[in-house]
Amino acid sequence: MFGYIVVHQPELKFREFDKYKSYYCGLCRELHKKYGRLGQLTLSYDMTFLAVLLTALYEPDTEYARKRCIMHPIHKHEERLNKYTEYACDVNMILTYYKCLDDWLDEKKLGRYLYASMLRKKNNKIALEYPKKVLKVTENLEKIHELEKSGEAALDELAGAFGEILGELFAPKEDEWEEALKIIGFFLGKYIYILDAYDDIEKDIKKKSFNPFVIKTPDNPNYKDEGFDDRVKDILTMMMAECSREFERLPIVEDAEILRNILYAGVWNKYYGTRCKRCQDCDKM
Fold first, then answer.
1. Which pLDDT tens digit goes with each residue over 217-261?
2. For every residue of the chain, which 3-state class applies, written as one string?
3. 20 to 30 Å CA-CA from 194: which of 177, 240, 271, 278?
4. Distances from the Cα of 214 to the Cαs of 30, 69, 147, 232, 271, in angstroms?
């Protein structure tokens, strides 16, 4: 995905941050085990959140290990592996593959096309295991592509399509928690799409690429409008309020503080970073 679903480290206890890192390292190990070095390159903090969330909810048997790796050659570090770090690993590969194809379609990025080509066999294998989920991803990415190509799509419809993707991927099985996990994924997906568009305004203007905040429509905030940043923040706040409300209904005790740190603080790191950078750039003009 985009690396927006992260912890806010200053507000985490040392032991909580170490545990969070152990999930990240476990996901990295799982990617290497299943998909090799090429798979490791897809590693993201977003899927670390999913691994922690599903582990905390379902409480599976978890394997603990202390190992060295290329990134940690001197000191051993803790890793956590279970059926949900493996699932998060598969989701990570699905999203990476189709994001690369989408970038090729939108901007003709040759590097993305080549990377997708290298991942194709691995993704075909995953598609056989999760046909319903892959179909949901492809249908909604196609919908986003067509909406963006129209040049006048409503922000909510665009974000909703990406929300449908994450909603499907956040629910690993059909059970009593499926609906709640889909709601969490849906609103996180909307949040990510909107925040990514907010973060990319200058880049998209320069490249003449589609951005819902640049086009003029009655439904979308425009980056030139007075109070634009605050309006975007209000929209993002509504998305996270719905997501967090559903999270609090889940019977999660273990790692609840790590997950709350991400949902209430970590997800805002990028928004404030982008907003502050824009303010500094404006001051220089």
1. 888 899 999 999 999 999 999 999 999 999 999 999 999 999 999
2. CCCCCCCCHHHCCHHHHHHHHHHHHHHHHHHHHHHHHHHHCCCCHHHHHHHHHHHHHHCCCCEEEEECCCCCCCCCEEEEECHHHHHHHHHHHHHHHHHHHHHHHHHCCHHHHHHHHHHHHHHHHHHHHCHHHHHHHHHHHHHHHHHHHHCCCCHHHHHHHHHHHHHHHHCCCCCCCHHHHHHHHHHHHHHHHHHHHHHCHHHHHHHCCCCCCCCCCCCCCCCCCCCHHHHHHHHHHHHHHHHHHHHHCCCCCCCHHHHHHHHHCHHHHHHHHHHHHHHHHHHHC
3. 177
4. 40, 44, 15, 13, 17
Calpha distance 101→178 (Å, rounded): 28
Half-sphere exposure of 140 (CA within 13 A, CB side): 25
pTM: 0.92
Architecture of the domain delimited by 9-284:
Orthogonal Bundle (1.10)
Tokens of 201: 């305004």
Question: Are the CB atoms for 218 and 159 separated by under 8 Å?
Answer: no
Q: In whole angstroms, give the CA distance from residue 151 to residue 212.
A: 8
> Percentage of the chain surpassing pLDDT 70?
94
> pLDDT tens, 64-96?
887 776 666 667 778 999 999 999 999 998 988
b/e map of 186-206 (b: 16 or more CB within 10 Å)?
Answer: bbbbbbbbbbbbbbbbeebee
- Domain ranges for the chain: 9-284
Q: What is the mean pLDDT of the chain?
A: 89
